[in-house]
Structures are given as C-alpha cells and as structure tokens.
Amino acid sequence: MSNQIVRVAVAAPLRKTLHYRLPERLLTQAQIGSRLRVPLGRRTVVGYLLGFVEDNTISLKEVAEVLDPAPLFGETLVPFFEWAADYYCHPVGEVIRTALPTGLGGAGRQPVILKERFFYLRPLAGRPRGAKQQALVNYLRQHSGATLRQLKDCFGGVYDSLKRLQQQGLVEESHRERQRDPFADLPPGIDVPVELSADQQVALTAIEEALDGGSFCPMLLHGVTGSGKTEVYLRAVQKVLQRGRRALVLVPEIALTPQLVGRFRARFTDRNTRLAVLHSGLSGGERYDSWRAVARGEIDIVIGARSAIFAPLENIGLIVIDEEHDGSYKQGEGFRYHARDLALLRSKMHRATVLLGSATPALTTFYRVQQGQTVYLPLAERILGRPLPEVQLVDLAGQRPEGVLAETLRQALQENFKRGEQSLLLLNRRGFAPFLLCADCGATIRCPNCEIALTYYQKQRLLRCNYCDFALPPPDLCPVCHGCDMPPEGAGTERLEEELATLLPHAVISRMDRDTTSRKGSHQQLIDGMSARRIDVLVGTQMVAKGHDFPGVTLVGVVNADNALNLPDFRAAERTFSLLAQVAGRAGRGKQPGRVLIQTYDPDHYVLKCVVRHDYRSFCAEELSLREMLGYPPFGHLVNCLLAGNDEQRVMVAAEVLARAWRDLAGGMPVEILGPAPCPLSRLRGKWRRQILLKSSSRPALRHLVNHFDGLRKEVRAGVSVFIDVDPMDML
Ligand code: ADP
Ligand code: ZN
Questions:
Q1: Ligand minimally distant from the alpha carbon of residue 384
Q2: Which of 416, 439, 477, 534 could form a disulfide with 529 if both were Cys (CB 3.0 to 4.6 A apart)?
Q3: Using alpha carbons only, how large is the chain's radius of gyration in Å?
C-alpha cells in the first residue's frame, strides 16, 4: 500500500478539501493539477489534485483514476483558486470546475484528443533521390519535421514519395497531437504600423518601467474613445515578451470585439510567438486543446474573455483588461466572480503589471487611482488630433414625434445619408415593442413564468419573453376585458428599423441585436458591412456601443437615454454614463468629425450633462459623493443573498428565517442587513425570488456572516435555493 496522500478539491458543494490515498499504480501519473476520479460517500466524483500532504489516518479512501494524460494546471494556480474560493465564499472544487474549459469539470464525456501523422528526418541518413524527394527533405530539415497536412498543402500529393523516403531510411513517422484551429471562425486582422503619439509613448514608458520593476503594479490606461488604447496594449505585450515573460489579455466578449483579436493576430505573426484564444465560440475540443497547450507552456499570449483569467499560463508579466468597466467580466451565475478583480489578485501573485484600459473606467477603479493604489495613464486626446464628437441633447418634453425619432434626429439622419456618411442608432430594447397594451383596460400580457410583460415581435408575429423565451401568438382579444384593441406600446429595435426604412427608403439599414446575431457569422457580417461602408445606418442594442472602430460613422443617435437611467439599481447612473460615452465614441473616428444626438425627457440630469461635456471626472465626483453618503461601493462592500424556489411561501419563510439568524449573529458588528425583499424581477423562469443585502465597510465582517451560512443551511427548507453573490453587479 502506498503512503502517498493527496489533498483534493472535489467538484461538489463542499467548502473544504479532502485527503485521499494514492494507490501504487497511479503514483507516476498523478501530479498537482491532475483531474481525478475519487469516491465521495456512495458516489464517485471528479476532483482536482491540489497537493501532497502528510496524513496518518488509516481509513483514507483511494483515488480511483487519473483522468488526463497531463495536469491541467500548475502549482502556482493552487493558491489562486483557494484565495478566489475564500473571497467569493464558494466551494473550491466548484471554483476549479468553473475555471476549466467546459466539459472537463463534471464526470461527463471527455473531449477527444485528435492525432495526426508527423514526419521527420532521421539523423545521418542517406541521400534523397530526385527533385521531389530533395524538396521534401529540405522542407523537413528547415521546419524540424512536418505533418502530413502541412506537406500536402505545400507540395500536393506527397504520400508515395514519403513512403519511399521511409523505406530508404531517411524519414521516420510518428503520431502527434493535432491542435484544432481556434482561429477558424475568426477573421484575419489587419495591422497598420503606426508611430506612437506623445501620450501613448508616455504610457508605454511607464509600463516598461513597471515591467522592469518586477513587482505587482496596477495601472489604469484611461483613454478617451479613439485615443489608441489598443496600440498601447500591443506594444506593452511586445515589451513583456522581450523580457522573457508572458501576457494574458482579457476582452469583454470575443464575438463582439473581433477587431481587437484580429489586430493581435496580425501583429504577432512571428513564428516564435505563440498565441492562443480562449473563447466561448470554440467547441469543447478546441478549448481543451488550447487549454492544454497553455498548460504545457507552449503559449506566450493568451487572449480570452472572462474565464481566460484562469488560463494555466505561467510566468505572467502582464495582464491586460480591455474595457475594464464592462459588465460581462462578472459571471452572473454559479461561481459569481469578477475577472478584473481576480486579475488584480493574480498579478499580485505573479508580481505582474496589470493594465486596465477604458474610456469610462469603473468608479471603483477610478477611486483606486484617487487613493494612490493604481498608476494613472491618461490618453486625453484622440489620435491625430481628431476632435471628440459634438454631443447634443434632444429634449423630448413637449414634442410629440410621430414615431420614435424626433425631428432633429430625423433631419440629421437624412443629411448624413445624403453626404454618404454612416450613422449608428442605439435603442436598448429588442423586438418591435416592449408590450401590447389594451386600449380599454390597460392590461398587458405577461409571461406565465416571469414577472414581466411579453415583448412583441412583429415580423414573427409573436409575443416572447426576453428572459425565458416563452412565446405565444398575440391574442385577438384582451384576455382581461375582451376588448379588441391591443396596440404595441413603446419601441424596440425592430420598430426603429421599420421607421428608418420609411425615412430613408434608399439607404441600406441593418440591425444588430441578439435576434439578428444568433446565427454563426452573422455578427461578423454586420461588422464587415460597416467597415466596407455597405451599410448606411446600423440600428441596435448596446452591442453597437462595443469598441468598434468604424471610421465612416459620423452620426450617432440615442433614441432614449432615460430607460437605462431609471432602472432600480444604484449603478444605473454609472452604467448609463458609460454606455452613452461609449456609443458617442463611435462617432467621428475617421477624417470627418462626428456628431451625437441623445433623446431624453430629462435633459437636466447630471449624467447627461457630463456626457455632453465628455466630462468623466465631474461625473465621477458627483457619483462618488452619492455613493459615499449611501455607503455603496467603493465606500462599502456588498454581498447579495438570493433565495429562489417554486413555492412563494417557502421562499418568503426561508428569507425571513435567514435574515433573522444573520441579524442575531451580526449584533454589534458594523454590518447592515437590508431585507428580505422581493427582487425587482420577483419571479423568473418559474422561480419566486427574494433577496437579502448585506452591506458593510468591513469585508471580514461580511465574510464572517456568509461563512456562517453553512451552519444555517438547515434552516432553509427543501425546495429553496440560496445563492451568495459577493460584490454583486446585478441585483434585478
Ligand atoms: P481606442 O481603443 O482607444 O478607442 P483604437 O485603439 O481603436 O482606439 O485606435 C483608434 C484608431 O487609431 C485605430 O484605427 C488605430 O489604428 C489608430 N491609431 C492608434 N494609434 C495610432 C497612432 N499612434 N498613429 C496613427 N493612428 C493610430
Ligand atoms: Zn418568461
């Protein structure tokens, strides 16, 4: 019997790690980062080997199996995972399961490792015969071997010649793992070499100094839209590679920001720089391949969305977080982590530089700058001295536009089209109209599963729930009063598209929202259409505000700024400022200056005034003083506890019991316990939802309460699920 004991995090809701004995036959296979199969109670579950330990307990159970040919992560990730588990009060095995490429966490089927035929020269073998053999041998020598596919691509039919070379003893064949191509669906990028602007140069020099300092250094690259942040990222990555270290680059959503990935690919074409992309568009197999290539140390630059923060990259010198304010860095379910916050921690562990980039930094990030905890690198002007667009508010009060566009915006669109320039319109609502409204009794048609009205889609003639996808044809009569007049109320992108078609009958109008981009490649088609100027007007939801660089866009219109401002969430102002500044930033990036028109009923709102002046700082000052008064982040910390279940009564009781227990426990601690209260979306996908919000300026106090929850778990009755969200971003 072997005496080797391992510490294992099991992929189950268990806060602590467990010890197992490693049987003789697995001694050589099992390493830190190996995925295992281990017994747990009566089941076998997947576990992750975190370390080798001493333990004299006789009755330890044995590891049943080692699941992968090589470990999935190295030793340096172990403390990172454990710290993240502790910070987010989440079981460490679940943390690791979330971190690994999908399909690897559970006990499910494993992605297949593809193999391919690989040919290489035997040393000191004889001479090739004939020109074809000579060419093949030269190629194999130059490239230190090649796969059959590479040779076929180069020389056409080569199989017979290769076989003869093998028979002559010049060439040897083996099988090599074949990497699926993670770039297969991404367009190749273009890279134009530029000379850095003065601001860019200052930023880059500061970054180089930080890299040479070799210690943890967080930096904020605060560059207005179009100031050339990407160029700074590219150079910074080059610099870190030159210093023999590696780079991790996070972007909000790869599918929505293909231009940035394209520029990295185009810049780092050098054969010795190996780039991997980890994103959700990859198949399970592709992600598995890329992941293991990173784990084997074969990759220098990893680009990916949120989950790439867990990439098993060693020797990281730089982490770049592009659009660091973006909400998609927060995972909304399961292990609810924030990739930017984890990036800060990971860089601390790697003694790396972390470069956060944004035109509209998160308030928490800017506050750290003010506190002297983050180096500030401003890019105050657009590249080549191009002006920021002129922003103008269109007051809707007193106006009664026929459709959704006021006269000012209609005229501007017409003139822009006449000049042959492109326009972009933001309306953050999908479908034709947010709901049907009975003209007689005022009833709307609600989703049977969610506390929300059904959206009307005219082209499909459907009412659909944007949360659970429940759909039904629109009824002829009002289900409440049997009235026969239920017109669509309000407007979504589909209606706006229709209105534009009437306004500009000769223009090419396209729509970008979740409904038009669900097909593979459809989003890219829209981007290409905009870049090639085939599209005159692009209408869409917030997707159109993402970091696109379309130099032909000179007019941006925002149909309604008030929707976002009025959401019941203390971050509504921050999100709105960011969204408006970002979408405004799409205008006038090329040679022609840009113009932005924002429709609103509330032109005196401080958020809108700051957007008009491109005044991030005043917005920040105003918003931070509000937050300080209310004790919201960054001045206080939040933990949201969400309870959900099919039975409303049970959820209510559980929430009351839990809140009372926490109040008892918190006596004397600097913690505020708010609620329980119904969530703004009080019912979602059939589940009733309540929340308890814990607020405190002391993280340890919050963690103390949350960690006690395991002891309180028995108080929560069956049929009610409890979700803990540390630093919640979304409390709807
Ligand atoms: P941001 O991300 O800050 O909005 P980008 O990085 O997309 O801005 O840059 C905007 C445009 O300016 C891009 O087309 C880019 O190629 C170009 N650009 C960046 N830096 C320079 C420079 N130093 N000289 C000329 N053009 C530049
Ligand atoms: Zn629904």
A1: 1
A2: 534
A3: 29
Q: What is the 577 CA–ligand 2 centroid distance (Å)?
A: 29
For residue 107, the model assigns a pLDDT of 47
CA 657 to CA 663: how far, in whole Å? 10
pLDDT of residue 268: 86
Distance 462 CA to ligand 2 centre (A): 14
Closest CA relative to residue 392, chosen from 373, 412, 378: 412
Q: Give yes or no for a contact between 109 and 14, defined as CB atoms under 8 angstroms apart.
A: no
DSSP for residue 669: S
Hey, what amino acid is at 559? V
**CA 360–ligand 1 middle distance (angstroms):** 17
CB-ligand 1 contact for 549 (6 Å cutoff): yes
Pairing status of strand 390-395 against strand 595-600: parallel
pLDDT on residue 642: 94
Ligand 1 contact, 195 CB (< 6 A):
yes
Judge if the beta carbon of residue 385 lies within 6 A of ligand 1: no
Atom of ligand 1 nearest to the CA of 549: 7
Q: Is 224 exposed, middle or buried (0-12, 13-18, 19+ CB in 10 A)?
A: buried
Helix axes 148-155, 130-142, angle to 10 degrees: 130
pLDDT of residue 181: 58
The reply to whether the predicted model has a pTM over 0.90 is: no
Residue 388 and residue 595 in contact, taking contact as beta carbons nearer than 8 Å = no
Which pLDDT value is given to residue 111?
60
Determine if ligand 1 sits within 6 Å of the CB of residue 384.
yes
Cβ atoms of 485 and 439 closer than 8 Å = yes
Cα(600)–Cα(493) distance, rounded to whole angstroms?
17
CB–CB of 303/276 below 8 Å? Answer: yes
Rounded alpha-carbon distances, angstroms, from residue 32 to 9, 349, 527, 575: 11, 18, 44, 42
Report the half-sphere exposure of 140 (CA within 13 A, side-chain side): 27
Name the closest-CA residue to atom 12, ligand 1: 228
pLDDT for the residue 257: 67
The pLDDT, as a whole number, for residue 101 is 82
The distance from CA 283 to its chain's CA centroid, rounded to whole angstroms, is 17
Kindly list the structural domains of the chain, giving each domain's residue range(s) and its CATH number in brackets, ordered by start. 5-99 (3.40.1440.60), 115-177 (1.10.10), 198-383 (3.40.50.300), 386-432+491-626 (3.40.50.300), 637-726 (3.30.70.600)
Sign, CA dihedral 343-349-350-354, equals positive
Q: How many CA atoms lie within 13 A of 406 on its CB side?
A: 18
53 lines ligand 1 (CB under 6 A): no
DSSP secondary structure string for all residues of 136-196? HHHHHHHTT-EEHHHHHHHHS--HHHHHHHHHTTSEEEEEEEPPP-TTTTSPPP-----PP
Round to whole Å and give the CA distance between 624 and 642.
27
Residues of the chain falling short of pLDDT 50: 107-108
Distance from the CA of 227 to the center of ligand 1, in angstroms? 6
Residue with tokens 């925002």: 558
CA 614 to chain centre: 26
Max CA distance (Å), the chain: 94
| Closest atom of ligand 1 relative to the 379 alpha carbon | 3
